[in-house]
Structure formats: structure tokens, C-alpha cells
Amino acid sequence: MFKATSNAVVKLVDESLAHQISRLVDQISTIIVGKRPQIEDCIACLLAGGHLLIEDVPGVGKTTLAHALAMSLGLKFSRVQFTADLMPSDLLGVSVFERNRDTFVFHQGPVFAQVLLADEINRAGPKTQSALLEAMEEQQVSVDNETRPLPSPFFVIATQNPSDQLGTYPLPESQLDRFLLRITLGYPDRASERALLAGVDRRDLTQKLQPVMDTNDLLAAQRAVQQVTASEALLDYLQALIAATRNGHWFVEGLSPRAGIAVLRVAKARALMAQRSYVAPDDVQAILPQAIAHRLHPLPGAGRGPIEQVRAMVEGTPIP
């Protein structure tokens, strides 16, 4: 049976940090109403140092969520509308010859932000999509044979429309793997939609948001995530889940070691948000569909989508 570490009952000592994270979730929930689980996933992804992919139909609040998060953290925000004619230089920046200096001067592109919203990323061509790879993985870009670091923290929120819509290009698997989580917002419930219809425009409310954390607080929270512990039993359980993806009963190909590390990182973030200093199986189970479904393909004839297949696999994998 799973057992926590010996100090598992001890709360994290920095209760003020946990309170700030809770306030962050509460504030964004006033903008994106009725979507608290998705907001928590978004913040867990940020705390874990990953990047987020939101796949949904237009108009459900994807852009507003990204903007509200940046405003609530006081981070530099940049938005890029991905289109078929968007070039990598439009994203990364370009060197321009300035006659008065008699030299080329690099002009930073919108990627040099702390929160980058890559809106409708799958409407751009593969070359432009790939321009984000180094930035997402290495937090740096290489332009004109020079490597330039990106701000810290650096968080990409990419949105994409369903692949069956016109004018979309499927994201390559190598780029999908760079996203720690993939979530959907979905349509609001009746009560939440009534609040949207009867209330103030969410864009106006977003502009009035005040930061509840600053950059130093966020970086401290990300360091705190790294201090969350995972017991041997928890690692056994995680390895059992990873092995289940590879046994040929559920998916065409299984998870890579990098994907397993990603699951553990975001599970630690969930534990921190729950004010625990250790990871529990519930943390893994809560985040697993969002963390791995976009990396996997169900077996032909499975009759279930990737998320449903992951949930069925979890139900069939006992906790040690």
C-alpha cells in the first residue's frame, strides 16, 4: 500500500506562498467563470516550469485566460496571432541595418516576453511552428548565429483550433511533446454563461486586475515545487503507469522517459498547491490525462479517444 514519506503530515512551512497561489486561482476564477479545474491546471503547469496547450473552439476564453494570468502575476505579456504567412522572424526578431550606427541592430520579436500567447498556433506553417521549439525547450533563441536568452520565467500558452477546422496544420509530435499539459476549456455551464451574459465585459475586467504575486514570488514557488518529495512507492506507481502505456494493450507507442519526468514535475506542482510537501497518487491521477494524452495514440479500434483511454488505463493500474 502507498505510504507517504515520514514527514508527509507536515505542511509546507511557507504558508504565505500557498496563500498567494490560492489567491491567484481565486482572482483568475472571477474572469474565467466556472472553470476552476482548468485554471488550476494552468497554474500547475506554470509552477512546474512547463508550457500549456489549449485546444478548443474559438470564443471560449483561451486568450482571456492567458491575459488574466499575466496580469495577475505582473508579467510581461505578448500575443502573436499565428497565420499561414507568419514567418519565424516575425516571432523571434530580426537584425536591421541602422545607417547612423553603421551596423546591424537586433530588434527583439514578441517571443521575448515572460508570458507568450501563441494564438491559433496550428494555423501557421510547420517552419514557423518549429521556430518555437528551441525557445520552449532551452529558454533561448538563436538568430544570426548568436544565442539570446529569454526572460525568466518564460511561459508559452499556445491555443489551437480543432484539427478538423479549415486552415489548420497538425502540430508535429516533437512540438506536442514540448507542451507539459494540454487542456480544453469547453462551453460554460448555464449559470456561468448567464454570469457572462449579464456581467461586465471580461476584457474590461482583465485590464483592472492587480498582481497578487510578483516575479520573485513566482520563481520562489517554482523552486518550492522542486523541493516536493516523491516516495519510492509513488515512483513505483508512476513507473507502473508508464509501463502500462508501453505494454501494447492501450496505445500504439508508450511514453518516453522525458514524458515520465514531466508527469512527476506537474504532480509535484499539484501537491504544492494542496499545501503538501509530498506527492500523492491523487496528484498523479488528477493530472495524468492532461499530461500524457497528447503524447499518445490509442490502438486502432479502441473506440475511445486518448483522454478516455488514459482514464481507462489508470483504472486498470493498481496503486502499490
Concise overview:
This protein is α/β, with parallel strands linked by helices and 320 residues long.
Written account of the structure:
With 320 residues, this protein is an alpha/beta fold. It folds into two domains: 14-222, Rossmann fold (3-Layer(aba) Sandwich); 228-320, Magnesium chelatase subunit I, C-Terminal domain (Helicase, Ruva Protein, domain 3), CATH 1.10.8.80. It is built from 13 helices and nine strands. A five-stranded parallel sheet has the order 2-5-8-1-9. The N and C termini lie close together (5 Å).
**Which geometry do the CA atoms define?**
globular
Q: What Rg, in angstroms, do the CA atoms define? A: 20 Å
- Number of separate domains: 2
Largest sheet: 5 strands, parallel
List the total number of helices.
13
CATH topology of the largest domain: Rossmann fold
What is the fourth-level CATH superfamily of the largest domain? P-loop containing nucleotide triphosphate hydrolases
Low-pLDDT regions: 5-10
- Mean pLDDT score: 90
> Quick one: CATH class of the largest domain?
Alpha Beta
Strand order of the largest sheet: 2-5-8-1-9
Q: Separation of termini?
A: 5 Å
The amount of helix comes to 40-55%
CATH arch. level architecture of the largest domain: 3-Layer(aba) Sandwich
Multimeric state: single chain
Report the order of strands and helices. HHEHEHEEEHEEEHEHHHHHHH
